[in-house]
Amino acid sequence: MSNKRIGTKNLGNVYLEGKRYRSRREWRGVVDTLYDYSRWLYNWINMFRIVLVKPRNIKAMFRYRWMANYLAVPMMVDRHTQGLRGEHLRICHAEQDVIIEDVAKLLDKLFRGDRRIGNDEEFSKKVVLVDENEMQSVMMGFPTVVPLSREIASTYIPVLLNQRAAIHYIDVAQEYGLAGDVCPMPEAEAGVSIDDDAPILGCCAVQCNTTCDGSLLSNGVISKRMEFEDGIPVFQLASPLRHTNEDVQEYAAQEIRNAIAFVEEHTGEKWDWDYYFECAKRVNYATKCRLEWLEMSKSPYPQVFGSNLALYTETNYMAISGRLPIFEKTDRKIMKLAEKAYKKKKMAANEYRHRAIVWGVQSHYYMDLLVWMLNCWGIVPLTDMLSMDNTTMIAEEDTPENREQAMYDIAMLTEKMIMRNRTHGGYKVLLDDLWEIVTEFNADMVILWEHMSCKALDGMHGMFEQRARELGINLVWVSHDLFDPRVVSRQGVRDQINTYMRTVMGEEPVDPTLEVLPDEESW
Amino acid sequence: MAKFYPVLKKLSLAGFSFFAVTFAVYYFNLDMKLTAAMEPVLEYFYDKVDRDQHL
Amino acid sequence: MKDLKHLLYFENLLQEAQNELILQAQSEGKVCVAYVCENTPEPLLNLPGAFSTRLRAPRTGSMEMATYYMTSFLCEYSRALLERAIEGGYNFADCLITPDGCTMMNRAVENMELLKALGKDKEKFFFEYMEIPMKADDNGLNLYVLQCKNHILTPLHEKYGIDISDAAIRQAVAEHNRICELIRAIGEFRKGDKPRITGYEFQVITLATYVAPKYLLIDKLEETLEELKTREPEDKPYRVRVVVAGSEVDDTDFIKLVEDCGAYVCADRFCYGSFPGRNPIELTDDEDALTQVCRQYMYRGQCPRYMNTAKMTGRREYVNELAKEYGADGIIYEQIKFCDPWAYERMMGSHILHDDYGYPVLSIDRPYNIGSTNGQLRTRVQAFVESVEIKKINGGVK
């Protein structure tokens, strides 16, 4: 049975064949178990307080298929905290709990404005719909405008909660003739729109080409319904792909100016420079924190790393973009805990065998694989591609020059959205940078998520392999299909690591009960 | 002071009961077991929703 | 119908990427500018002293090496190009210019660069990657112009001394327009009940203008046009007329297969087709030629990566207009397998053209080289032809 030791021990025994849930929660010793219990209680109270006490949200629970997944929120926290103790457990909770609260508020707002549910027209007039993978930095100067992403609520978060959440929508899109080989994320988003399962609200929408060709085109499916049926005007924000080139920046900045003018026109609100620079300070603080955490990860005692860092960065960097002070507070809290643990040379698991850089696009239905890797094989995921975003500070003092610079800063942040920062912009940012990061972090292993329908990544497959061979780095391919566990199951994902570790590395697992888990039916 | 003891006792008892029940729910994962049972019920409603399915 | 005099000649030009006219032009001292995407403005690659060739991989068989480098999930066009490049099939090119249009094409070219698959023994060889606009507006135009300057004109001038003046661009546009006018005039013979040219023949001729130096084709095109004026059409040459719309098609066997099933391809709205690729470019004297070229490429472009609403709806309207102008009974929406942009556009287009415009639509995905799935596609096209025919017999209800 699990005990106070750091890292899991026999945790595989709590998995139940054919069940959504585990038999019980992890025993982490008295103090940490009580702490985890208190956070579990806090999250349930928050979900009740923000979402479940309002009749309109209950109505939405019975209207939107994706809402059922939110019942599995505590299970997601359990998956990401497995094996964690002390400061690491607290860091993880700080990250997860603030995200949970933020998403609960997102749901509440969506249903408040939704014409089918709350139909609060006054509120809806201040809502601007944004993409799921869109940097919300373009909203940093609009304190009274409410940017909401329907896709985050309907597809992005649900798949983190329930591995099967997107399957229905993927099938709907394919029934309409969409090829099965496109990325299932935008495919599922298109499916939600086709299936008439998206809340209808907002005075306008800003879509963006941020992630990939599929995402760009899926926006076309969504905007058709929004513009021509729901009467929601859409602005398509084009962010250049070759973002490392100087000669695209003016275009990018002008796109931002045009997007701001569009939002001003449709909301009647004016861009507020005071608010913008206040947000810019918070963006810079978040960047500073992330850089310090990455510095710690270069040492033998990394403190903020793995799937929690990736998830937190995605939320804080992309969806928040300095707009909410609570995330700055969370940054400070995490920093304090991390510094404390770093001084004490704390480890997140009993044994660190390999230092790994995690590259590529993570499996969304199995984002907690990184925690599993740590517990099962002692592989420390030092950093991941999603967390290697912008590292430069943006202008934060309100001066005439900085007002002009701000357009370039917002454009730069948009161009360097998580993932696209690496998957676009030429091969250097994806391929060449990886090996520099490996050296910088003193890593001996690369875990390369191969999201099989991500054409930007697949297109460099051979070169990754060739370079790893030349440099003598252990490269472990982990194939998956992002949103669709029918293509590669969670065990299928684990098996790729298990096989490599046993056959190539000739090692035995740290916790053998985790090697094969009956979680096919699990959330 | 003595007259507060029964109140304190009741409060402590209520607090402990709350803790005991919720901790049992937490540790034995009863919340997830309950929500797993709710899933098919919700699915039933989702399948009955009248949808305007089209591009 | 009697065979066209130069059909075999045009067909032979398509047998290899490095055709005889490329060799001839290079022996005359001209620079061969290779490109891979319709969003690269062709006249800028055909300035005096240079000529363009759009890369193809004819008669592609195995793509094992390219599949190793890019996996089996990338579109076969991009893989076929990489395979051919690795085999040394494009070593004749003096440079390769590509827009970061679709991710797969971009990756194919990046792999070529990393593997040093092109430019063997060519000191001045260069790769250039362009950003191209995703929306048709003034901001997009400014970007397009700047990118063409930085990634086409400047490197061509600096490396090969090509004249990139306004006058040179205008000269290249004039030559480009001559080709377009000839193709347009030849294409006009597809209208009417008894067309004088088959869709296959037209595609062969059009395709040749993309892959061979244009100035060396003019006489043959002129002769073909003259020949068509007096060519005797067949009495009942087809069962239904279709527009083929969709992603890149440079495999003439595909159009041949469609026509063998009784569907006459009366209009070609695909990359490597004549719409809009062979629309002449109209220049005025009150603005520089480069800006005008870019503007026309941007506004006429039918690539699904253009994401603004006007462009999206315009793409379907364009197919409708072509269908009306060329009297089509139905539309075949095709995409090359694993193409992300066209996967979505095909889904949207095939539903919208059917539901909103009332056309019978066949929606298919296809491999780069049609040979391997010949039977399956034939069955689908035959079934489509029959269904359209039945609808016509039953009173023309679409």
Note the total helix count of chain B: 2
Topology pattern of chain B, helix = H, strand = E:
HH
* Basic shape of chain B: elongated
**What's the CATH class of the domain at 15-167 in chain C, please?**
Alpha Beta
Considering DSSP H and I runs of 4 or more, what fraction of the residues of chain C is helical?
Answer: 40-55%
The average pLDDT value of chain B, as a whole number, equals: 93
Q: Give the C-alpha Rg of chain C.
A: 20 Å
The poorly predicted ranges of chain B are none
**Number of separate structural domains of chain B:** 1
| Sheet of most strands of chain C | 4 strands, parallel
Give the largest interface pair and sizes: A-C, 53 and 52 residues
Structural class of chain B: mainly alpha
pLDDT averaged residue by residue of chain C: 95
Any low-confidence stretches of chain C, pLDDT <50, length ≥5? none
Helical element count of chain C? 14
| N→C terminal distance of chain C | 30 Å
Q: What is the C-alpha radius of gyration of chain B, as a whole number of Å?
A: 22 Å
Oligomer: heterotrimer
Look up the CATH topology of the domain at 15-167 in chain C: Rossmann fold
What would you say the CATH architecture of the domain at 15-167 in chain C is? 3-Layer(aba) Sandwich
Number of strands of chain C: 8
Provide a descriptive summary of the structure in words:
The complex is a heterotrimer of chains A (523), B (55) and C (398). Helices cover 52% and strands 8% of the residues of chain A. By secondary structure, chain A is an alpha/beta fold. Chain A has one domain (11-514). In chain A, helix 4 runs parallel beside helix 12. The radius of gyration of chain A is 22 Å and the shape is globular. A four-stranded parallel sheet of chain C has the order 2-1-3-4, with helices on both faces. A four-stranded parallel sheet of chain C has the order 6-5-7-8. Helix content of chain C is 48%, strand content 12%. The mean pLDDT of chain C is 95. Classes of the chains: A alpha/beta (523), B mainly alpha (55), C alpha/beta (398). Chains in contact: A-B, A-C.
Short description:
The complex is a heterotrimer of chains A (523), B (55) and C (398). Chain B has 55 residues and is mainly α.
